[in-house]
Design brief:
With 361 residues, the protein is of the alpha/beta class. Helix content is 40%, strand content 13%. It is built from 13 helices and twelve strands. An eight-stranded parallel β-sheet has the order 4-11-10-9-8-7-6-5. Strands 1-12 form a two-stranded antiparallel ribbon. The protein has a two-stranded antiparallel ribbon with strand order 2-3. It binds flavin mononucleotide (FMN) and 2-Ketohexanoic acid (7N5). The site of flavin mononucleotide has 23 residues, from helix 2.
């Protein structure tokens, strides 16, 4: 893939290769897609106040997260249905994650069984959890993730109610024959119900627990010895509550603009959350709209311990399977390395908020 130099080029390639129904599902957001666009654009409104003359000969991108040292601060956000992008789906992704020295967060709605994904992994795999009305099915997911060898659970808190996704309704988004949600086979919920609109929408409405509340975080933390993260937080007070209810980490996220449209761009709320969690020991990841190494630098400088990317992984996967995902991670890590060097910084720990300022209008 030597003719591809940016994540945007991977998106273009994936757009040409994927069926419209799949591309639209991956690319799309909720309603008018305002948050989807703002996630991305918000980075352009921040400038990097770089240092000079700092000896940047030796640089490292490594971080500690969830008690493990990893080579790359760019983690793989949980995204559903990787086998819509490549034959091997999640197996391609997890192999690429291992080679890039990062964590893969595996979706509940993966199209490959968690046991098979962990067996193919050479690095940490975390399991993203959707809470089902059927609590036994939810407990089974937790037990399977633990037994398979996942090293953390990520409870997604921003998708209790299905959002309005016009592209999926129009396209009648569904899973083709032979592709199913393999982690839900055992509980009898591996496929979408019949419907004219979005099959996924109908599935979520039928199965996800809309009564999810803070006490359920206590329930989950009590159910497992694994570290528990909560994903989808955009406010300082909620982050604080998450810590009080036993979360080991928070993922600042608006679900890539796919849930509540006009919710704030994640980079704009990160400082509030960092401040709210000061002194608690709760770790912070963030995602949404990260497409350049300078975006990663800004998030790390403003206090995130690491970042996650969602769609760009799917573009790499669609364009060239495992090698495509590896290339996406390589391109972004290289851009980060360059941005750090040009900012006069040699390690992620040395990225501090004074490096960032709003762009003067
Ligand atoms: C196609 C797609 C599927 C997703 N599936 C899940 C999921 O199963 N669970 C979850 O917690 N988040 C899911 N997300 C949200 C991502 O984890 C992440 O928050 C978002 O994609 C980050 O924004 P970015 O795509 O701009 O990097 C999904 C996102 C996309 C684009
Ligand atoms: C609401 C959950 C469905 C999968 C997902 O998270 C997404 O498509 O964004």
């Amino acid at each position: 893939m030597s003719s591809i130099f940016s994540l945007e080029q991977y998106r273009e390639k994936a757009c040409k290769q994927l069926p419209k129904m799949v591309y639209d599902y991956y690319a799309g957001g909720a309603s008018d897609e305002i948050t989807l666009r703002n996630n991305d654009r918000a980075y352009d409104r921040l400038a990097i106040r770089y240092h000079v003359m700092q000896d940047v000969e030796d640089r490292s991108l490594s971080i500690s997260i969830g008690g493990e040292r990893i080579d790359c601060p760019i983690l793989i956000a949980p995204t559903a249905f990787h086998r819509l992008a490549s034959e091997q789906g999640e197996l391609d992704t997890v192999r690429a994650a291992g080679n890039a020295g990062t964590v893969m967060i595996l979706s509940t709605l993966a199209t490959t069984a968690v046991e098979d994904v962990v067996a193919a992994a050479s690095g940490p795999v975390w399991f993203q959890l959707y809470v089902y009305r059927d609590r036994q099915a939810t407990r089974d997911l937790v037990r399977r993730a633990e037994a398979a060898g996942c090293s953390a659970l990520v409870l997604t808190a921003d998708a209790q109610v299905w959002s309005v996704r016009e592209r999926d309704e129009r396209n009648g988004f569904t899973l083709p024959e032979g592709i199913s949600m393999q982690n839900l086979e055992a509980s009898g919920k591996p496929t979408f119900p019949e419907t004219e609109g979005s099959g996924l929408g109908a599935y979520v409405e039928q199965n996800f627990d809309r009564s999810l509340k803070w006490s359920d975080l206590d329930w989950l933390a009590g159910l497992t010895d694994l570290p528990v993260w909560i994903k989808g937080v955009v406010r300082g007070d909620d982050a604080r509550r998450a810590a009080e209810h036993g979360a080991d980490g928070v993922i600042v996220s608006n679900h890539g603009g796919r849930q509540l449209d006009t919710s704030p761009a994640t980079i704009t709320v990160l400082p509030e959350i960092v401040q709210a969690l000061e002194g608690t020991g709760t770790e912070i990841l963030m995602d949404g709209g990260i497409r350049r190494g300078t975006d990663v630098l800004k998030a790390l400088a403003l206090g995130a311990d690491g970042v996650c990317i969602g769609r760009p992984i799917l573009w790499g996967l669609a364009a060239n399977g495992q090698a495509g995902v590896e290339d996406v991670l390589r391109i972004l890590a290289n851009e980060l390395d360059v941005a750090m060097g040009l900012s006069g910084v040699t390690s992620v720990d040395d990225l501090t908020p004074d490096l960032i300022a709003p762009v003067a209008e």
